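Write out structure tokens for Methylcrotonyl-CoA carboxylase biotin-containing subunit.
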Amino acid sequence: MLRKILVANRGEIACRILRTCKRLGIATVAIYSDADAQAPHVAMADTAVRVGPPPVKDSYLNIEAIVDAARTTGADAVHPGYGLLSEKKAFADAVAAAGITYIGPPPAVLDAFGDKITARAVAAAAGVSPPPGTQGAIDPAEVDTITREAERIGYPLLVKAAGGGGGIGMQIVTDPQKLARAVQACSDRGRQAFADPRVYLERYIEKPRHIEVQVLCDGQGGAVALGERECSVQRRHQKIIEETPSPAAFFQGAEGEARREKLLADALRVVTSVGYVGAGTVEFVASQTGELWFLEVNARLQVEHCVTEMVTGIDLVEQQIRVASGERLAPEILAPTRRGASIEARIYAEDPAKKFAPQPGRITRLAWPAAGDDLRIETGVAEGLDVTPFYDPMLAKVVAWGETREAAVNRLDAALAATTLDILGPVGPAATNRSFLRKVLASDPFLAGQYDTALAEALAKG
């Protein structure tokens, strides 16, 4: 087993990883920027190292400083968490070059799935179809080629940045007259956000559902898909509520169960075809009738991994650590038992009435409901600390479990209702999305399980 792990992240995911390390008796190192000097993850770790000033590029994306922190503290492994450097091949390479274990997929796998165009090709070669689209990148200057490709694929279209994520560098196009402009805009956004101007076209699935599959692979022949997660409640193409199992009608009954089993098998085929190691998520887009197409692979832990943990009893961070230590996946992991349903809501300092604009400020009052077997509170903030404009404004994840979906939803709603969270902004009280999350949970489409990715933004407008 690894002896000392540096967590190359911040906030709730850093706290989450540190908690499992402590349970396993593994020494820990936290990193922090000046803005996070008093953050809970800093206090939780055995050792904490400053890596730079508040801007993320100067601290949490500072590969040299992070690797140096691991080296000087004697860490024998680095866990990247999610976001930030978690899918960057350059970071994994730097960690390995320092003689330190990287808790995640090999650099070659990160390379394959870090590029959406390459990922489409990997999936297709494994026999898992992505939505119809271009075979490679398109040049924004080649308007005639773009027009021909769009006509071949058919409208509506998605223009997507090859290195994008979180909805950045992506536009829906329904009008051919607006295609060239959208291609150029996405290319410019990709260059700015990811230093990668390449874009491609893909058929847009109308009224889509976002379904993903949690996988675990030990690199020694052991691989398992731990079930699907429904992630269709989104704003700005980013998830805010996730649940498992998916309540979609096309997963019900014997035919639905067969569709689910095929989905899990497809997810495993994609990742095992490139020698995947560790935890990851294979994402799919689904039509309302249950046609499923490959979207991408997130070669890391996902924000919403907790709902899978709640129904399987498997600590995914522990499994990441064990696999990185050279262990095989245990028989009980390869043949998991799923029980009940789980649902997660992400609490953000943002205003749904203002297009979900972030709301920085100071947390003046904070009280969570009591956690237990049916409720988890995953957070990295505390009363008296600031929600800064430097980082993502997610404050916490509230994760509920129940014997049935209805019980899980009710438990989550009760927990949100029992939460006290006040933020004082520069000019007065700042908003959070807590009440809006309850509005989603109470909506008829959500309660019926018959919703798509447009639900949250439609409710915000209404």
